[in-house]
Amino acid sequence: MEMLGIITRLSRATKQWLILSNDVLLVPVAMLLAMALQLNEFPDSTHMMRNWMLIPVLMAACAVIEIGMNIHRVQLKAYESRAIALSAVHAALLGPSGWLIERAGGGNTPGATFVTFSMVYLLLAVSSRAVMLKLVLNAYRQQPKLRVLVYGAGRTGQQLVAALRTDETVRPVAYIDDNKMLQGAIMQGLHVHAPAAIARLVRTKRVDRVLLAMPSVPRARLAQLSRKLEENGLDVQTLPSFAQLAGNGVPLVEQLRPVVPGQFLGRAPLDAELPGGSETYRGRAVLISGAGGSIGSELCRQILACRPRRLVLFELSELALYKLDQELSALALDLRVEIVPVLGSVCDAPLVRRVLADHEVEIVLHAAAYKHVPLVEQNPVAGFANNVLGTHTLAQAAGEAGVARFILISTDKAVRPKNMMGASKRMAELVVQDLANRSVRTIYSMVRFGNVLGSSGSVIPLFHDQICKGGPVTLTHREVTRYFMTIPEAARLVLVAGTFATGGDVFVLDMGAPVQIYDLARQMIESAGYMVRDEQNPDGDIEIRLTGLRAGEKLHEELLIGENQIGTPHPKIMLAREAHLSEIEVAAGMKALRAAVAESDDDALRAVVARWVEGGRALVDRPTARIEDRDQIPAT
């Protein structure tokens, strides 16, 4: 193992230098042997002294010729017939070179000696390389071999075993095959076993890895088989056929084509239809809370393009803040925008007030929120503390600091909410509306999103992950629909709508018709190159499994509370006119909420929801949703 370590640490250039040195040092040995053969005895010192100039000059000639022919660059494992032929030419050139050098020095050694020298030198060069290769192989044999099962005893599997037997670090121990006609047979000295024998083989033959060599099997089946083997603690690798590796076919194992979220909108993206808005942010100091999230980070990029004076990144996650700061700092140099990363929570009132004051913030975009429905459902106190109390802390501090504009990022789940996440966002809206009614200097507004395609926790990453694993794709109900928008659309909507705000406004985007999630699942499966497995196509690749609506989940989301909506300067942006609580009601609700959070009292929290949120009584009266299987959670 020590010798192997030395070999592996040598650089390629060092290995080439060692081979060249070996060949040069063989010159005096070959000359000595050639003279001995010619004289039938080893030459004495007097004879050797007469040729003392010949040896060093011939060694130099050997090095020059070998470098010119690149013989020293041939790897030991690749030293075969063609390389031996090059060595023969090299030796053939050395003989006449030695004769010319010897004659130029006034010597009279017979020419036959140099012919013998060429032959002896070639023999030594080839033999020394064989010895070096043997030493290297012995060093590699000292390391433990990787013991592998080959799943698939067909042509590809047999080719794989033949190739692996030339590798000193891998040892095939058996075949596995689903074909009962092959089970029990012996191929290339290895037995073919049924899949049921895998556990026994892993134990008795100390298997380290399973190699899937089945190019004709559908990719979904391979993914399912791979996942099953990995669940049993096995390392699994999949490979295409050798013909495919040579470029004569389509690779079997290929990554799923990147999903472009906009392709599933069912309408043309509105990015190009949301121009303007940059003037509002140019030369201003802008703070974005939740800057490291999907929406927050896109807001940062688009705000940066508006050339603000300062961009404050307010984020709770250290890793997300670090990555975003690294990305934006590089872009901000040319734009001359100051990037200020702030690590902290919007619930930290002293920190919020200090940041707003120290950096003279003029516009706040509040995207920080807990948005994953199942997690907030199971942790309502943490959800309301962050989403409601955090919003109140930041929004109130913004008003006290004289911030010009405050924009809350909300969700369509806040409209007559059926889950605690939606209820928390509705209470956050009520807080902002109340501050808007009492504000003199700060313009408060809200932007209500539908589902954002491609954001963390959204349905597309979930479906994509399930498809990568070979399915099934889980869906709660066949008739579920949702409004969708892309991340760039969502960020652009915030920027444009913020310029229209006059105080207490709720903006929504005209997103066209809602998308049926079942159809979205089918599109994603088919766009990945699979077929849906259902009653009409039982031989398909991936199943869409319906799990039933969860408690609090809607079949169809809404964007507006009531029917009152008016237009804005942009035809794709609507302004909702909705009822809101009075100042006294908001104050009472916030007092009760703070008490419930302080006591970490779920029941008291639900009582607040029942009292102050539209439809909250029905939300509280239902049983708390239970999450028994993470795979059953659709991010819709």
UniProtKB/TrEMBL annotation:
User: Which Gene3D superfamilies does the entry mention?
Assistant: NAD(P)-binding Rossmann-like Domain (3.40.50.720)
Name listed for the protein in its UniProt record? Nucleotide sugar epimerase
Where are the bilayer-spanning segments?
Answer: 20-39, 51-71, 83-101, 113-137
Q: Which domain of life is it from?
A: Bacteria
* Family listed: Belongs to the polysaccharide synthase family.
Q: Give the keywords, sorted.
A: Membrane, Transmembrane, Transmembrane helix
Q: Where is the Polysaccharide biosynthesis protein CapD-like domain?
A: 286-577
